[in-house]
Write a structure and sequence with these properties.
The chain has 431 residues and is of the alpha+beta class. The chain folds into 2 domains: 163 residues, Periplasmic binding protein-like II (D-Maltodextrin-Binding Protein, domain 2, 3-Layer(aba) Sandwich); 200 residues, Periplasmic binding protein-like II (D-Maltodextrin-Binding Protein, domain 2, 3-Layer(aba) Sandwich), CATH 3.40.190. Strands 1-3-2-4-13-7 form a 6-stranded mixed beta sheet. Strands 8, 9, 10, 11 and 12 form a 5-stranded mixed beta sheet that branches. Strands 5-6 form a two-stranded antiparallel ribbon. Helix 3 links the parallel strand 2 and strand 3. The radius of gyration is 23 Å and the shape is globular.
């Protein structure tokens, strides 16, 4: 665990020294009230890590306060949040995962601060598209999409197509603009003995592709029913039937390898980096890694053809524990991370800012990434992730898709299986 504590400004040091010299017993309390205790799990070389390090410097310069920063792992925060946030050891601000099973659960337990007044005061909602606000707001049952703000995201994420430009050029292929053209592209590669899609069924990429296929037939009502429990989900309807049948068809055609049943996300991503596969459908979190590691060929990105929506969401968000000692300092820090200059650091280092001035983004690949994200947010096209509705659905969906591409179950059987698991999980949540 990395832990750093920065020094107080000169004015703060004089204040503390005066208290000590006068023998005032309030010296420690005064010091504590001028310290922001912050936790997050971003690496120092990530886009967010770089931007937030600068935000810490700006915060300390402008406020005269000290930031006591502890780098925690995602798993450390996830597994201990309920206990720590319900104790006197709670930080003043921390990065936390969005969703019903995470931030929603803590909000429903009264462990997070209602941020509505601060959101209105600072105008943070003006920087967030409606679909980005969904994961920041939770009702009394911890279900996202309505109720008070319990978090503020300052970056976004989404899923798109990465493609090997050199392999496309060698095969005389263009970026497809329809699903039919995409299938033509993939067939051209299989005709050359090349499996076109880098995939993993043991972890998330294949589930995201499955959901994306459903989204090509879906509208916002379907997404709200699926994600927010606003209506029943028809697992034999056109959206999910098309998704599951298409995964099966693409496997039979050789576009997806049956070996993907044993591949993890890292396997699929590194196979794309190595130039083994020409296409990889996955998240924007791979972008900066491809920039630094996929150096043996030219690559680019495009949104999934004929889809108005794509998997994605606002990023993980700043939350303020209800037991935080210095909430006002936390709000000031959040506001600094939303400034254009901090947002530009996210954008120019491979991340997706939610409030950047596009003129400040100078890297060409980052411009393309952010441009695709902006297209989605402008048309209300952020549709969240397929496993979000229940705490167990990630594993259940992966298992079902493994059986699908193994050929041990038909598309109809898979949809019946995972549909039943989905509904059981939702019933446990909403009763």
């Amino acid at each position: 665990m990395k832990k750093t504590k920065r020094t107080l400004s000169g004015a703060a040091i004089l204040g503390v020294s005066a208290l000590l010299l006068s023998g005032c017993s309030g010296g420690a309390a005064e010091s504590d009230s001028n310290t922001l205790k912050l936790w997050h799990f971003e690496s120092e070389t990530s886009a967010m890590g770089i931007a937030w390090e600068e935000a810490i410097k700006v915060f300390e310069e402008e406020t005269g306060a000290t930031v006591e920063f502890e780098e925690k792992s995602f798993e450390q925060i996830r597994s201990t949040a309920s206990q720590v946030l319900n104790s006197d050891e709670a930080p003043d601000i921390l990065e936390y995962n969005k969703g019903n099973a995470t931030a929603g659960l803590l909000a429903s337990q009264g462990l997070l601060t209602d941020l509505d007044e601060s959101v209105a005061e600072y105008g943070w909602d003006d920087a967030l598209a409606p679909s980005l606000q969904t994961t920041a707001r939770y009702d009394e049952d911890g279900i996202m999409g309505s109720g008070p703000f319990y978090g503020v995201p300052n970056y976004g994420e989404f899923v798109e197509m990465y493609y090997n430009k050199d392999m496309f050029a060698a095969a005389g292929l263009e970026v497809p603009t329809t699903v039919a053209e995409l299938e033509t592209v993939m067939k051209a590669f299989t005709d050359q003995g090349i499996t076109p899609l880098a995939e993993s069924a043991a972890e998330y990429p294949l589930g995201q592709l499955w959901y994306q296929l459903a989204l090509t037939k879906a509208d916002r009502e379907f997404v709200d029913d699926y994600q927010l429990y606003t209506g029943d989900v028809d697992w034999s309807g056109p959206e999910l039937t098309y998704a599951t049948e298409t995964i099966k068809d693409w496997t039979d055609a050789g576009y997806i390898s049956t070996d993907a049943t044993g591949f993890k996300a890292e396997d699929a991503g590194t196979a794309f980096i190595n130039g083994t596969y020409p296409i990889f459908f996955s998240g924007s979190w791979w972008h900066n890694r491809f920039t630094t590691e996929a150096t043996g060929f030219e690559w680019g990105t495009f949104l999934f053809p004929e889809a108005q929506m794509s998997p994605g969401s606002a990023g993980n968000m700043w939350v303020v524990p209800e037991k935080a000692a210095n909430k006002e300092l936390a709000y000031e820090f959040i506001d600094i991370t939303m400034r254009p200059e901090i947002q530009a650091l996210i954008g120019n280092n491979g991340g997706i800012p939610v409030a950047a001035d596009t003129a400040d983004i100078t890297d060409a690949k980052s411009q393309e990434l952010i441009g695709n994200f902006n297209i989605l947010t402008e048309r209300d096209g952020i549709a969240f992730y397929p496993d979000w509705p229940t705490a167990t659905f990630y594993d259940e969906l992966n298992a079902g898709l493994q059986e699908l591409i193994n050929g041990t179950k038909s598309p109809a059987e898979v949809n019946k299986q995972i549909g039943g698991q989905y509904q059981s999980g939702v019933d446990d949540i909403v009763g």
